Fold this protein.
Amino acid sequence: MGRIVLEKVRKAFAEVVVISGIDLVIEEGSFVVFVGPSGCGKSTLLRLIAGLEDNSGGKILIDGMDVTQAAPAKRGLSMVFQSYALYPHMNVAKNIGFGLKMAGMPREEIDRKVANAAAMLNLTDYLNRRPGQLSGGQRQRVAIGRAIVREPKAFLFDEPLSNLDAALRVQMRLEITRLHQSLKTTMIYVTHDQVEALTMADQIVVLNRGNIEQAGAPLELYERPKNLFVAKFIGSPTMNIISGATAARYGAPTIGIRPEHLKLSTTSGDWKAQVSIAEHLGSDTFLYVDADGIGPLTVRADGDFAVKPGDSLYLSPDPTRLHRFDDKGDAIR
Amino acid sequence: MATQETRLAARLLAAPSIGLLFVWMVVPLAITIYFSLLNYNLQTSVTTPFVGLSNYYYFLTDPAFLTSIMNTLLLVGAVLVITILGGLGMALLLDQPIWGQGFARIMVISPFFVMATVSALIWKNLMMHPVFGIFAWIASLFGAKPIDWFGDYPLTAIIIIVAWQWLPFAALILLTALQSFDQEQKDAAQMDGAPPIPFFFHILLPHLARPITVVILIETIFLLSIFAEIYVTTGGGPGLASTNLTFLIYQTALLQFDAGGAAAGGLIAVVLANIVAIFLTRLVGKNLEG
Ligand SMILES: Nc1ncnc2c1ncn2[C@@H]1O[C@H](COP(=O)(O)OP(=O)(O)OP(=O)(O)O)[C@@H](O)[C@H]1O
Ligand SMILES: [Mg+2]
């Protein structure tokens, strides 16, 4: 249960086309992450799947059933919102059980399911509190609890962690991953944090201006980006993009090389460069260098690589890790 | 105001204005209390002998007093019910995306800008007049006998007029509250599969509890002292049928020229208003806490 198929899904608000014909298959039990820059239509696509927006064209199938015209509650999906969207005047138990109550489930069964979900999410002690009396992480768990009790075919998350601080975000990220492993339910997760995308996803869908640029496993996107957009979007720090004479020497109008795929040497190499800034992070050192005839580049070095701003060094791109792009920005294979 | 010092400074700085306000309040109050203890008739008294509490005794035992209290409560209660239910309905309608929404909103708010005396006169002469009024004309269309609103249903007529004036206020406050309702909560309720009516009662109405309390509080303050509408239309009559407490005090002072009795009545009104105020602040306090 939980295979979602999008066929030529389109969405326009008045004249403005926000989603322009998306085809996508989300396999049962997979964890799919939508990433993309702000305003590219991630939330809109998610809301289309949820049924909170009407399609302007195309079809949405869940487990082979056409749900394009179905009301949100009839699609058997649960959604976790960025602002949690808990009902402020209801306590935690009522918040979690509200959907079941609306579905006309008997009291005792609701209580049992709420208790189960609360136990799973460490919320048992807070069942009588109101959302206003909870911390951000607890509220997030209540929102997830509300999604779980309905035993949906798929979970939809819209940037659920963006309101949390860094430490809590890591913890909740792990909890959601664990939840996926124990429930094995399809999850669709929207984020613009690529660390979340790379760590959580089975499949990443990179969106740009309402189109899918590339969909695939995290490592596939990292190793074989289909075009410049994906190459620049996935990976941190971003890939170095070089064009002009240097790129021509490698046989393409534009080439890309990731900071971690540049070999460093103080004595010899392909490109000569001066260090302008060195960021020592302990485990890594990020060097911002100025390469002769190429321009600024980012390089990742070991944590104990000792250089100072102004030092000269040599860089050699790993030829097997070099990405070549044609004039349109598509990868040359 | 965290520290002791800032609290002290705040008190010192606020003291002059509070002092002035206190004097402003206390002097008239003291004079009123003094008058209420005198036999002070504007027409007949050459002297104003001290009579103790007998003004209070006469005011409280006057059958008109009870009638006026009942009328006051009926007026306040009925107008509150009509304006809140009607205002809620109007707010829900105006919150829908309809054509000409901006214009409709301005039209709805406009009665609030009409002066009480003017609106009462319009209702009296254009709407409810048994011969020339629009209601009479509508009744005649159906061959019915026109209603003599101010003769037969004076209090109802005044309730209608006052409710018409206050409906926009309630609608406006509730509309603002509706517009501040979180879109994601609406979405969440949709995902939870709440149909419109349960959505209204389980989610929207609790969200509106605070603004409704605010409307009740503000309207009550003003409705307890309704005067112009009664003065312009029924003059408190027929008999005492549309006399509220404010109007009774006015009658005592300026129609019977009994300054002492009116002062006593005024003080009784102050006490009653305070009872209502305590009751309301309790209600509001409960609703305004998180
Ligand atoms: N109700 C609407 N009416 C008109 N335009 C809208 C509406 N909702 C979204 N849009 C537009 O659609 C585009 C995509 O919006 P969407 O919310 O899907 O972006 P997003 O990818 O989720 O961005 P973010 O990462 O900032 O949340 C935006 O340009 C936005 O202005
Ligand atoms: Mg979004």
Residues 50 and 115 of chain B are 41 Å apart (CA to CA).
